[in-house]
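In the previous lecture we treated proteins in isolation. Real proteins rarely work alone, and many bind small molecules. This record shows how such a complex is specified: first the sequence, then the SMILES for zinc ion.
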Amino acid sequence: MPQEEKTTMVHEDRYDAQRIEAKWFERWQQDASLYAAEPNSTKPKYYCLEMLPYPSGALHMGHVRNYAIGDALARYMWMNGYNVLHPMGWDSFGLPAENAAISNNTPPREWTLRNIANMKAQMKRIGFAYDWSREVTTCLPEYYRWNQWFFLKLYEKGLAYRKNSRVNWCTKCATVLANEQVVNGCCWRHEDTLVEQRELEQWFLRITHYTEELLRDLDKLEDWPEKVRTMQRNWIGRSEGTLVDFKLDGAADSPDSTITVFTTRVDTIYGATSVQLAPQHPLVTRLAKNNDPLRAQVEQLIAEQRKAKEVGDIGAIEKHGVNTHHFAVNPFSGERIPIWVANYILIDYGTGAIMSVPAHDERDYEFAKKYNLKMRIVIVPRSVDPEETSVEPKLPFTTLDGTLVNSGPFNTLDCEEAIKQMSAHAQKNNFGKATVTYRLKDWGISRQRYWGTPIPMLYCEKDGIVPVPEKDLPVILPENVDITLTGGSPLGRVPEFVNATCPKCGGPARRETDTMDTFVDSSWYFYRYTDAHNDRAPFDSKTAAYWFPIDQYIGGVEHAILHLIYSRFWTKFMRDMGLVKNDEPIVRLFTQGMIIKGGAKMSKSLGNVVSPDEMVARYGADSTRMYTLFATSPDRELDWQDEGVEGIRRTLSRVYRFVVRNAQPNHPDWRKPVPAELSREARKIQRKLHQTIKRVSDDFQGRWHFNTSIAAIMELVNDLYAAGAAFQPSAFDPGVFQTESEASLLPVALLSAVQRDLVLLVAPFAPHLAHELWEMLGEKTNLLRAPWPKYDPALAKEEEIEIPVQVNGKLRGLIVVPADSSEAVIREHALSNEKIKAAMAGKQLVKVIVVPGKLANIVVR
Ligand SMILES: [Zn+2]
Ligand SMILES: [Zn+2]
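The predicted 3D structure, ligand included, written as tokens:
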């Protein structure tokens, strides 16, 4: 072939991702119904959902990974004949918009909508297959009016109520701070100002009405990651135990001087050597009132606790405590024991007070060692004679498998029996009782912020709290609110908003100025997707019943608790309202791993952020998204390597060239069935194809190890090139089959089947390229709805051959091995064959001679 022609061909052969992706972007833009779910479809439904993003301004690589997983799955399900719902939206209320408004002087709405436009354009550029006709934007009144409607329904049912609660307060801002605005215990804008805790009336949703059900139904969620179920179980935190009242020594008998502790091990109460209180416990506040040193120490403990909460791991806090030098009386023994305040006791867990039993509790033991507190053994291993107190268990001895000692009338009881009797004893004597407690508390949804859903409530001097009538919804969030000012809730400074008329008496009323926690928005948004433009109801029940529950939900594990528990609560409430039929919103949950670079989480401060835009510009969208699936299995942490994206680009380039060079849609044999009789080499390619279809299909249906799926596709491509090179030595280019010649390696029908299936297999991962090649193969149908290739197990099966095995030159048996078995494999099979072993009995092995594919000869003496 002359040099000139070669140059031309190379040019045409080049995989130009930008050109191909621009072409398909345009085509897809013009077809609004492309990714739309079908109304009144008889196909089985599949609801595939990725968590909706917060519109921060630009997609980050973690988003791309999340959406690439969901997109591959949605495309796979379309190709498998499902009616797929695959929507996207924006979790667009929240604090960052207000912060941006303060620093850039841009109104939150403008900032948010601009960010949404940017991110939507990015998603379209990457080619995610979303049904944009169902887009949900939570900061728009057509959505948040239904938050308000739900709030009224919750209020009607007694599931929304007001109570006093603590908030973070900055004295300089003179306003409430969100937890995220508290940095190292100080205000984010006033780094020298310690944040105070103040009591404020706030709105709560009674999620605890569903505690037992939320816990019990976790057992149904078999297709959720076990770690997520465990996290939710711990969050709900059911524990059976006993409440016991200790009295403040020397104080008059009053509720004020009672310390109620919660313990799961009342059987160890004779071993209690101190009482430990949370720093916010009311008794601590009272004891510290006229005791400046104590108050300072307690404030220090509170600061430490807040810091540990910010880091997110209160369990790992370095334990500190302060002795109040007051005493409490153990109601069982009458013993006086010291009262401590400790930073690891949480006021909102149990009663905010515990009894400390160092001999029989890990944490108490650690604390007692540190502060040199007394220890007393009251449980000994059951096998030990209780009279023989000289045999002491190794401390702390925490098992329930023991017997009581040093416990007055309860000595010799087993632990479990003691718990029953001692709980009953406490109840009979009016100083305690058996109880079940939960860690889960009601959901405080009041935020003293601007950028959120206004809570639809009014305060009338005559009528008190009056709900806004349903017909007056939505209560519109006013625009042009100056949120840069300090001093109270921003809405409180807008008289047109605050001043209203009481719907009951017609007199003046004040509007609630708190807005809702943004977790309200995300608790039910996925129902709205099923009927996104309904202006009479949040959604149509029948339509929701068709789509729900969600078949697959995909998102970050950071949402394992709050978002998912609130969503489960909301579904149960809607079911009780008769709005939905399902008990749970989500059948299957997948949490993808994080993306890191150079061993660290991507962050601006580390300068290791990889921008999706840059990757798409350099390598193309297909390579970028496919790399996020290929680098490791999707549940694992992914350490970003640009070279890895380049590697994927090269692979896609090989797929592209292979099809460009071998597509012959006008050949008369192109659409003929693959002949039953094939040459050995053609059969090898066919086998590899069916094995690849099997592996990719299995991965989609199983553990989603797309990295192995893509590796399998790469192997198939390599085999195709190798076949082209090995059997067409005269051809200019390896990988090109001279199919019309006599020396044809592959029948055209097989070559065409391989290419079509290869393109179908690539389609969920690299949709632009797949669509381009599909067209090149002469296909007129929509690739998105083209049937997923089927594999034939018989064709996928490895070819096997029989090999004769000789011992000292005499035929002694036959072994069956895969056709391409190595010497080592044949040797191993031969030596473990029963007949051969019998023939070798009592003799010594000298050597094994293997002629691969033909013969094995074993020499013995
Ligand atoms: Zn401040
Ligand atoms: Zn009134």
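Summary for your notes: Confidence is low (pLDDT under 50) at residues 1-11. The two ends are 61 Å apart (CA to CA).
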